[in-house]
């Protein structure tokens, strides 16, 4: 008779059952932990997106900004630039091209001229540098000009811009597409750059790149009165409840959800082709841009909503000194001994208005200005 060893079947079944239930428990705990982490992560992303959408983009693109002795150039190819943002992108995003030393070691800096320009307006920038915005115009006082624009999708244009920056060292490119609806980003970038790199400028002069500015009138007549003003903006001012808010199909159309219930803007603001800003306003208006939701109509945002947020800002209307018709402005300069227009919107393709206005202004200098102007610029005789 064969011998069979005794078995311990009940004990084996208990061990198998123990292992099975422990395995199931481990799986369930793992699933619960995973779901908890996923729900928490999704909730965090949702809150972040709703409350600080502008910071998300900053985290994607921001780099540490440090002063550098030469212009900083960074190729930014195939960048994802958001079409909408809660606050202006340029509150925190990095400079694509920066020229941080424009105002470094410049004494007696009377005017910082901020120019809003487009990426392909090379000729306009060149003419401005060669005429009224030439930094060597005056003997004892200084002015500096800075051109601001955004990104271009055209590779050849970007390469020309980078070359322009190397040659002139006066261009600033921000991390946003250079489009009509992104002009607010450009303006906030200019405020930020000014506070970071040119605080010593006594007067901030903002112009568009189609503007001729008589810097001799600016220095001789406007500066003495304006230099002591605080929290002041001079421009062609549109008073509150006088400027219509356009709805529907229009170049300046505003969504019905913005300024709901208003037919006209309830704030004072400037037409932005020419604006004089007292330097004490730059820092508070830049800070206000991080508290004032983005609005695409740049004139209203930059020279209305931000000053309103700062508080106590005085708008002074000087439209009588500003001429928006190039032909009328040129006629004044050519046919009168002393034209009083401080500004003429002068860009007309291939008509040479800039040059004619410049030489006419030089011919009308007062004796005091002739002593101040670099003699190489003065007309012979």
Tell me what the structure shows.
The structure is a single chain. By secondary structure, the protein is α/β, with parallel strands linked by helices. It has a domain at 60-321: Spore Coat Polysaccharide Biosynthesis Protein SpsA, Chain A (Alpha-Beta Complex). The chain contains 11 helices and 12 strands. The protein has a 9-stranded mixed sheet, with helices on both faces. The longest helix is centred in the first third of the chain and has 43 residues, at 9-51. The chain is elongated and about 115 Å long.
Mind sketching the topology for me?
Layout lengths: L8 H43 L1 H9 L10 E2 L21 E4 L10 E8 L5 H9 L11 E10 L3 H14 L2 E7 L5 H15 L5 E6 L2 E3 L1 H12 L5 E7 L30 E10 L3 H7 L9 H13 L3 E4 L4 E2 L2 H10 L7 E3 L7 H11 L3 H6 L9
Parallel strand pairs: 3-4, 3-6, 4-5, 8-10, 11-12
Antiparallel strand pairs: 1-2, 2-5, 6-9, 7-12, 8-9
Helix pairs in contact: 5-7, 5-8, 7-8, 9-10
